[in-house]
Amino acid sequence: MLPQISTGTLSSRARLTSNAPEQQLDGKWHFRLSRSLRGAPDDQWQTAECENWDEIDVPAHWNLQGFESPAYSNHQMPFPLDPPYPPDANQIGDYRVDFDTDAALQGHRVVLRFDGIESAAEIWLNGELLGTTRGSRLTQEFDVTASLRESGNQLAVRVMQFSDASYIEDQDMWWLPGIFRSVTLLGRPDGGIEDIFIVADYDPATGAGTLDVKVAVQNDVDARLTIPALTVDAVAKGPIEVGLVEPWSAETPTLYDAEISTASETVQLRVGFRRVHIEEAQLLVNGRPVMLRGVNRHEHHPDKGRVFDPERVRAELSLMKRHNINAVRTSHYPPHPEVLDLFDELGFYIIDECDLESHGFEHSEWRRNPSNDDAWREAYLDRIRRTVNRDKNHPSVIMWSLGNEAGTGANLEAMSSWVKAFDSSRLVHYEGDWSSTYVDVYSRMYASHAEVGEIGREVEQPAPITATAAEMHRRTLPFIQCEFGHAMGNGPGAVAEYWDLFEQYPRLAGGFIWEWIEHGLATTGADGTRRIAYGGDFGETVHDSNFVIDGLVSADLEPRPGLIDYAAIIAPVRIVVAADRSHIDVANRYDMVSLDHLELVWRRVVDGVEIAAGTVDAAGISPRSRTRIPLPESTRSVVETALADVLSLEARLRVATSWAPAGHVVSRGEDVRETVITAPEPTAGLTASASHVGAASFGVVDGALVTLGALPIAGPAVGIWRAPTDNDRYPGWDEAEKPPFADRWHDAGIDRTVSRFISAEIESASLTVRTRTGTPIRETGIEGAFTWTALSSTDVRLDVTLEPRGKWTSDWARLGLDFVIASPPRGMDYFGLGPGQAYPDSASGVSHGWWNVERAHLTVDHVRPQESGSRREVREATVQTDAGSLTVRTLSQPFALTVSPHSRKTLAETTHNADLVADGNTYVSIDLAQSGVGTATCGPGILQRYRVAPQPGRISLVLSTAPATV
Ligand code: GAL
Q: Cα(688)–Cα(675) distance, rounded to whole angstroms?
């Protein structure tokens, strides 16, 4: 058996918006599921009575409609690597819909269009086999004129869950069979427009636009092109000079409404003029270098899977725009065709990727990889033709991507040759071709910072002296990271360090975070509550667990902290405040536009109260340039008693756009002046005993806090562990030979420390408790001295000294003081970086302020529970619980604060957030040091400078409490 391609289909062509009649066949269809092809009834199902079948929605995936269940695997094929055969256990979905043909279609030639069927199908109309499909995310059209009746049509589709095509559709996502995109009948008038290919070029030297128009019209009649805004009215053929135009770019997505018509049909298009090319290893759009601030986007909805939902996609893309994202790689298949319209309209640079991945062959060391097997050549070519043809009129598409992780081979090369011959207006991308012989950009995934730096300097290995022609050629190409910053769980970290490199070297044209959205699927638990599921939750025998939960937004589109961090890193404006506040340095990091559409607003807040505000003039700063702008005296006039004086600047949109309201903040900058509070003198006459120091009472057995005022509170324990993040559970690619941090920590015992009370000493009004916190099995431990001094009837001072002992075998996750309040949290107020979490290597999206955090936002509700929620540079915080509040102020350096309704042990042991049960306590950690998060799930681990080596620590705090307000 040879691998198949679609049969009986029409040649692929552009998606056109036409006034020709159409009939939607979406809706309720009859459905019958069989467990295997051989077991599927051969009962004339195409035409027989099917009233007793089940019902299903079209478009939908049957696994999400109550028929069997979805399955997730990354590159592992869920069945034996035995190409081109699917397994016997292969769900077969028989679909039937009976319909009458709309009057408007009658008398026309009629085409039946499927926009997406996973994974292969046989199509029957009125008992006649029209053909078969391959290419799940690709459009397939059949001419049905001969078999269509006026009424009583029976459309029958047999869909295979797996097919030979599954071997080249092994993308890292849920296997979700079914007719999941629309089914449409298209009336094709005589003399109608079959296909259009418009290349709308913009000449940056002259500002002129040129159209290269190719129109395929039935019967070869002439078509006319009109573009009213450009007063174009011409025969739609060949090059047409249109004079001066506004160019299209992601920053200026100018589209011109155009019509192409014949006597019988009018097609509407939106034309964007732009030129994409490479010069001196730089990626240029309209003659200017561009930086791709990208994400990889899969189509995903927690209830509907890959079914298109126009409102949600608009919301999704608007959310991207509001977070400064300007580029999308459509990983790893062309999205629903209308998504491209939105990309054009909102302004994104798109790498449109073919529906192709043969990653499973990595498990046979790439033996029999279809990419290098002649038998699959046509299948590869068919896929790229369908991809390119459908989307070729979209200005947003700047590169065609041959596919993802399909190894290397002649078939990929053949695809590239076809693309280059067909469309020279765009670039060819494929990450798997490291030698870059048949691509136009050098693309990699998860390359380390060091390697990206080398590539930037064009000295990547091997050294130039031994370089082959291909390697020399590669060095003339721009570089992108088509995947970097793996946004799984808490992370990614060290993205800013990549961005600094991208900005430093002209050859580096940016990158695409992996990935935009988490693919969690919504299910209902036994108790009726909503649960987000991942791999293995449906009983799959081969799966990749929560590796599918790795997005900048949750499956419900809630931004994760990684998105907030990324938005700040890639912000198109950078505002740096001079240390003396005399001026700001403003960098315009847009590639095309000035900052005239932004208002630069400053605010000065002293101890929580705004004392001055104003705007500064940032007009006329051209793209990719910097300017110094003076600040008024009121930004720096001396305020004698201030503990914190925050000058913040915001670049805000002056007028609303289609994706954000006026006032939306694009970028921030700040300067902070802080005064360390001096310890108040203790009120005279206060004394200390082994059990009491002012408002604090202690257990005499272990010297630990028992209550503070009326607040039941235990601690502090010395904590050096955290509930492993997803990244902590994987070895970074830079130290793949070492165990992941979670294992190193376990091996070093820091997840199970044991403490011993050494002594309690009283000296005048102070109690000093000494403890040793040790690791099981080993000699390592931390000696702590905790000196408690009553300052007043409510305030207690705590001076802490921590000294590590022994030879540690691992870095720590953190160094902190852990308290447990025996009452559930309500929220917190603090001064520090916020409003969200920050870790040392992912702290770009936070700013200094007086923040209020509700209970639900204390931590991040990761689908797989893990450490989250640390607030950095905190000077003062009040944690509210049902039993009262705890206020902590530092007398020395700021600290990191984590407040959670869950213990770290619970977080580490629970696999799904739906199973987390709050135990009624509030867990408060005051950290002197906290490790970065890195991106070890894919890419480098935590950079050395963000690790916490065993170290001594000191901090002085004031603790007080107040009763709960009702
Ligand atoms: C890449 C792959 C993506 C995804 C990612 C890990 O290798 O291209 O599809 O699997 O790794 O999440």
A: 30
b/e per residue, 514-547, with b = 16+ CB within 10 A? Answer: bbbbbbbbebeeeeeeebbbbbbbbebeebbbbb
Domain boundaries, the chain: 571-664, 693-962
Q: Which amino acid is present at 958? A: V
Q: Are 330 and 352 in contact, with CB atoms under 8 Å apart? A: yes
Q: Are 456 and 479 in contact (CB under 8 A)?
A: yes
Exactly one of 299, 316, 460, 483 is catalytic; name it: 483
| Residue 405 among the catalytic residues | yes
- CATH fold, domain 571-664, is Immunoglobulin-like (2.60.40)
* DSSP line for 524-543: E-TTS-EEEE-TTTT--SS-
Pick the CATH number of 693-962 from 2.70.98.10, 1.20.1260.10, 2.40.50.140, 3.40.50.720: 2.70.98.10
Query: For this structure, is 483 an active site residue?
Result: yes
**DSSP secondary structure, 569-608, as one string:** HT-SEEEEE-TTSSEEEEEE--SS--STTEEEEEEEEETT
Q: Which of 297, 483, 550, 733 to mutate to test the pocket of ligand 1 (most atoms within 8 A of CB)?
A: 483
- Of 99-103, 230-234, 385-389, 617-621, which range is least confident? 617-621
Give the 3-state secondary structure percentages of the chain, helix then strand then coil, rounded to 5: 15, 40, 45
- Specify the pLDDT at position 640: 75
**Best mutation site among 330, 332, 514, 548 for ligand 1 pocket (most ligand atoms within 8 Å of CB):** 514
- CB distance 514 to ligand 1 below 6 Å: yes
pLDDT band for position 294 (cuts 50, 70, 90): very high
C-alpha distances in Å from residue 740, one per residue of 306, 446, 719, 743, 921? 33, 17, 19, 5, 30
Cβ–ligand 1 contact at 357 (below 6 Å): no
pTM exceeds 0.85 for this model: yes
Pairing relation of β-strands 292-296 and 508-514? parallel
Q: Whose CA is nearest to atom 10 of ligand 1?
A: 172
The residue assigned the tokens 């995947």 is: 483
The number of residues making up the chain comes to 966
- Local confidence band at 225 (pLDDT 50, 70, 90 cut-offs): very high
CB of 527 closer than 8 Å to CB of 518: no
Q: Residue 921: is its pLDDT beyond 60?
A: yes
What would the two tokens of residue 600 be? Answer: 């630069």
Minimum CA distance residue for ligand 1 atom 12: 547
CA 899 – ligand 1 centroid, Å: 33
Across the range 165-193, mean pLDDT stands at 97
Expressed in angstroms and rounded, the spacing between residue 548 Cα and the centre of ligand 1 is: 9
- According to DSSP, the residues that pair with 878 across neighbouring strands are 829, 887
pLDDT value of residue 221 = 86
State whether residue 797 is helix, strand or coil: strand
Tell me the CA–centroid distance for residue 938 and ligand 1, in Å: 8
Alpha-carbon distance of 179 to 308, in angstroms, equals 12
Res. 463: pLDDT tops 50: no
Q: Sign of the C-alpha dihedral, residues 232, 238, 244, 248?
A: positive
